[in-house]
User: Fold this.
Amino acid sequence: MKNSLEHLLKHIAAFERSELDTILDCFKPKSVKKNTLLLSAGNICREFYYIHTGCLRTAFIDAKGNEMTRLVLTDCNIGTALASFISQKPSVEFIEVLEDTELLAVSHHSFYQLNREYRCWNFFYQRMLEMAYSYQNRRIEQLVTLSAQQRYHQVLNDQPLLIQKLSNKLLASYLDIREETLSRLKSV
Amino acid sequence: MKNSLEHLLKHIAAFERSELDTILDCFKPKSVKKNTLLLSAGNICREFYYIHTGCLRTAFIDAKGNEMTRLVLTDCNIGTALASFISQKPSVEFIEVLEDTELLAVSHHSFYQLNREYRCWNFFYQRMLEMAYSYQNRRIEQLVTLSAQQRYHQVLNDQPLLIQKLSNKLLASYLDIREETLSRLKSV
Assistant:
């Protein structure tokens, strides 16, 4: 599992062997069962994840109790409820395990210690933030400029795995459309 | 104008005097008139801004030609069309000057050179990305979980300057609601 994370880290920044060994030591393996809540809304996010195999989602809950999926993480992805992980304030998002998942977790303490000590981790985190920011920007663009149909076709083209992995209810909440609208779009 | 940027930089990271002098030298003053387009959609964003006085906005355009304001930058703010600035690919957003504005601009080349050379700039940029990411996350949360009325009241409480600075048309496009809805909310 750590080989696969090492591959991803080396793809993003030019880590030295000794740095990689220290960094990989900070990531602890976890097996989490489907339907586990890795983080509840209102709690502080204290871990950052590398998903080896499986599937997680982060989601907001509105005042009526409706869940709105923001991010889906599948095999070989990294992420967490990043806003709370950064601020160390209670999270407005929760993290739910959608399939039995094998992951590596690094604590907030270790993450920011690596950030202070290793220039390469600094670049890795910066690159990760740049990608996360750009992803959020596309999400906002799609939410405010595309129709339900266009959003569905965008996911169909760019993230076809989500169509396979997510139930209709969760996919609709990711697209910010009603389940009935999604069913209609799928049947066309 | 550079004193005010220096104050902001020192607030975010522990720069040394010699570093600050080099960094401030990379920022070039510009006076831009109201209604200027600093960046057109489809062009590559090659500058990052510190707004000394004035007001800019970044916005998307949908297929029907409707503009959706994403970000408004006022006095002493930093920012740009960051997704295109990061990727150096054509921007889906434009940047428009809403008031006569005095700003400092740093080129993409200088920005990333500072990032390679100065550890403190590295921390500054990382912190800026963390804040930009968290802002985007709140924007997504508000777009998908709040009603038009709740979004209006959120801006009224958290960013009252936007109510003063933006026309009804632009404020409605920031809130992703119709102008008529905004007029109704304002009159309550």
Q: What stands out?
A: Chain B touches chain A through 36 residues (CB under 8 Å). The two ends of chain B are 41 Å apart (CA to CA).
